[in-house]
Amino acid sequence: MISTPTVSSDEPAITGNRVELQLLTTLKCNLRCGYCSLAVGEVLRSQKHAIYTAEQLEAFIRKHLADREVYFTLYGGEPTLNTGFILELMERFPNCRFNMQTNGTLLHRVPDKVLARLSNVMISVDGGEEITDSYRGKGIYRRVLGNAAAVRAKTFGTLTARVTWWGGETTFEELDELTRSFDYVYFQFAQGVGAHTPESVAKKKAVLAKLVAKFFASDALYPVVPVMGTVRNKVAPWRINELSAGLTQCRVSTNLLNVMPDGKIYPCPDMLYSKELLQGDIVGNWVKKSPLQPHPDMPCRQCVAYHYCRGNCMKNLHLAYVKNDANWRTQVTEPTCELIRFLGEEVDRHDPGGWYARAPLPVRNRLVNAEVYEFCEVMP
Ligand code: SF4
Ligand code: SF4
After folding, report:
1. 270 lines ligand 2 (CB under 6 A)
2. Closest by Cα among 142, 141, 102, 140 to 118
């Protein structure tokens, strides 16, 4: 049984040796995606650009994170709408790694010296062209893929497609196609009521089965992160402890700080509306341990998937089992857990240990140590 969380100010704010500072550099966005999580609680556009200074951020890091590796994820809103602040950060923190999460539509306007400093660019799509354009606007899919191809030569980092997997229409072929344009494909099951009807879950399982089959059909690395992550967690389980102290692999309980433009810090970028989760403040120069922790009422420790899942999404679990939102539990959390368990069963059917034993050393190394795991949530 997971112990009841006791969050007190004398507990270390960060667990582990590194911390991801996810900076919402602006809450402005040039798109209006139908399901944007920041629209909940009217967070999107509620603040404009970051109002704390780079000096205040440096003072915060010096006081609270001095003995850790700090890396940045540039987030929004749409971070490419505030490249001036990004350049300032890159100059002030020349030794830090930078990751960017973008809708990809304005990548062509990002200065070359920013692109050259990015370790990874997460570019949002929703699957194939038709689905992406239906959520994001006509022509967006092609524009984004064109922009990704155009910046490829200007960055040393990896390009990762970040797919929100909504209904049952997304096909294996659409996800597979993205592996040709991107270094990695990360998908996350949509967190919205109505996304996971029984019919939609059945269709998603059929696609998952094909993704897993393709992963094991080759001794090259098929770069679909949740499949890679599931295999990694089964053949190299110690990596979960190294990267997120054995807790949720989005780092929200251990080493992820989301900084709003006004400097307020929250654990989860999807729950910025929840003032009770306030975790710190750049301007006030304080931070405490994440309040989003495992809770005795969450079913994870009794779950067969726990050894590789580790509580997937604390937001989903918190809403379902702490806030007791029955609608969320039955329509989002439980179907997502069903899909995660299915993913693990499919992986087990292909003997991941045997595959790993046969894999060439560079493939084994990439499966276990790929940097991309530090920039996304690992589990879907
Ligand atoms: S599948 Fe669901 S219940 Fe099981 S460990 Fe993951 S989040 Fe917890
Ligand atoms: S996976 Fe869930 S808890 Fe983690 S950052 Fe994303 S929405 Fe928040």
Report:
1. yes
2. 102
